[in-house]
Amino acid sequence: MIIPRARPAHGRRPPGPGLDRGRGILALTGFGLCFGTVTAVAGIAYGVFAALGCYLDAYGARDPYPRRGPLLACLAGGFAVAFLAGSLAAGDVWTMVGMLSLVTVAATLFLRAIRLSGPGSYFVVLVAALTAFLPPVTAAEAACRGGCLLFGTAVSWLFCMAGRVRDPYGPEQRAVSGALRAVAEFGAVSGSGHPRERPTRERVGRDAYGAVHGAWTALDDARGRRSAPPARRRQELCLLMVRLETVLDSVQEAAEEGRSSATGTWVPWLRRAADDVRDGRPPGPWPAGPAPRAGLPPEAGAVTGTSAAPGDAYVRGTVRLPPRQGVGADLRGLLSRSSPAPPLALRVGLAVAVGTALGAVLPLLHPSWVAVGAAAALQGGPGVQPTRRAVARLSGTVAGVAVTALAFHSYQPGVWVTVACATLAHGASRTVPSSALFSRMLLSTPVALLLASAASPPGTGLGTLAAYRLLDLTLGLALGVATALVVRGVPSHRVCAAVSQAVGATGTAVRVRLCTGSAGAEPAGFAWRRTAELWTLYASVPAEEIRRSGTAERLWPTVLAVRRLLSWCVLAGPPAPAVEAGVRAGDQMAALATAARAGLPGSDALRAALDGPGPKPEPAAPGLTPRLSAVRSALLGRTGAG
Q1: How confident is the model at residue 429 (pLDDT cuts 50, 70, 90)?
Q2: What is each CA distance from 117 to 25, 56, 71, in whole angstroms?
């Protein structure tokens, strides 16, 4: 089935996220109100601790409000625990080393478990490190400072949730809008048959699948853990995503076959729909004419404005949505053999421990920046290697130091000038997207310098602080990069386990689908979770390795093949039960899942395991056999899909 043709957008990437002015205004208002109020009442020394609590607004920007509120409250408690741990450790070097490494590991695991968007454990480490390197104080003074910090987190929480009144479905709408636009760009470039355009098609295709995965995750997170049906607007967005899945599947199939997949109707409509959804308007009627089917049963092609789309039963509630898992299941998954979190958390903890020891023994003005820099080199930026993160952070810091030095070359700011400048820079840093790491560092560095200057003994000028900021952060970033080079990140056995579990869970869902004639909510939901875990691991591999090992490139065809098989299982129309075909397909996938534990996709060990005796792909159902074969080919490393 062919989607209408459009002129290829050669080499053009989907537009990235623009400036988030609404978030910037809220961050500026909350930071200024909190910092200014505490400074006016208790002095700027206490206002600095309240400002540290306002760093809570770095988290949760992409999470739906039903999920954002409770998780930000938990993270505020984490800030308080980190502050308490740092206060208890202050004054003793080895206690600081042990306490900060423990806080780092626990915070990294916790934030990976709750999947809260933001810079990882970076700011939790910042709070603990700054407190630990301050001179020891009495319990009463520590409690007073901690109260200021909690006041800052409370104010920041209120402003992070303020958008719920004006735009309660904003995060989900932005995620779905991004998915629509990314699929439109994929459709625009997929029709190009020139060999030189293949890297562009593959890159834009991965962006499209990433955006669609993010939109589904946002809609799933918006459900919370309650069993009540979702709000009508979220039901509409869910239905729109179900229909978008059929378009994406068709575009991917056309890209693999080297034929055109888009004409002048679908791509412009998806772009207009992206704008409508982002602004909270319902998109117009679906284009008339042939609908994308991509080998799915006929029912899956009915995606016009009047026909029911595949998966409508999930939205209308006639079929139960996949059940949510509890906190215990999240923690068990975090510590499973397929999770990348434990080794990565231990590595960040080791880097912070070494940075803490160096900061304590070297003659540095603000030694906490060494530990924070080491954590920064290993945190955030999915798909971005530590060396690139370090370069972006260092260059942004140099630019921020230069701007601060020029602005305050011959002028030492007073209390309220410090409050005003820090507030403006903080609000501006929250306006730029998280992917613009250089710009964020350029804007956040003056905030750090102004706060450090306000908390430093009299006579410590901004120029001295700026010089030490460069020295300390450079040392910390170099330490983080060296740790990533010496200590291996994601072990290969965890990658193999994640692949095996995703293949096995999807095979079970396919078996149930064929044997019963309907997609069971529980096996489909379990397969979705396993596929999401595989996606998370795929994104973690390049973000944690200094040298490109090729693991991500070898893993992507398997991620794509498993996901397309799962989409067939969920989106296909209700066929008559075929028990024999279901058992046969289930056995084939079980054999593939067992073999996947032998090695990475495309490795000699995995090929040997698959070339041995075992069930081979056989006809199972219309449109299913090619997808089963695609999973096997991806594991063998014999596919060029992507």
Answers
A1: very high
A2: 19, 11, 10
For residues 453 and 464, give the distance between their C-alpha atoms in angstroms, rounded to a whole number. 10
At 384 the three-state DSSP class reads coil
What is this structure's pTM? 0.87
Looking at residue 16, what is its pLDDT?
53
Buried b (16+ CB within 10 A) or exposed e, 179-213: bbbbbbbbbbbbbbeeeebeebbbbbbbbbbbbbb
How many whole angstroms separate alpha carbon 341 and alpha carbon 334? 7
CA angle at residue 336 from 325 to 347, to 5 degrees? 120
Q: How many residues does the chain have?
A: 642
Beta strands in 446-559 (DSSP E): none
Residue 215 Ramachandran class (φ > 0 left, ψ -120 to 50 alpha, else beta): alpha
Dist CA 500 CA 498 (whole Å): 5
Residue 20's closest CA among 434, 389, 496, 302?
434
Which tens digits make up the pLDDT trace of 280-332?
Answer: 888 888 776 544 544 343 333 333 332 333 344 444 433 344 556 666 666 77
DSSP letters along 574-600, please?
-PPP-HHHHHHHHHHHHHHHHHHTTSS
Percentage of the chain modeled with pLDDT above 90? 36
Give me the helices (H) in 408-461, please: 415-431, 437-455
Decide: residue 507, CB within 10 A, 0-12 exposed, 13-18 middle, 19+ buried: buried
Contacts (Cβ under 8 Å, ≥6 apart) of 88: 95, 99
* H runs (alpha helix) in 115-261: 122-132, 139-160, 163-166, 170-190, 198-221, 232-257
Residue range 256-264: mean pLDDT, rounded: 62
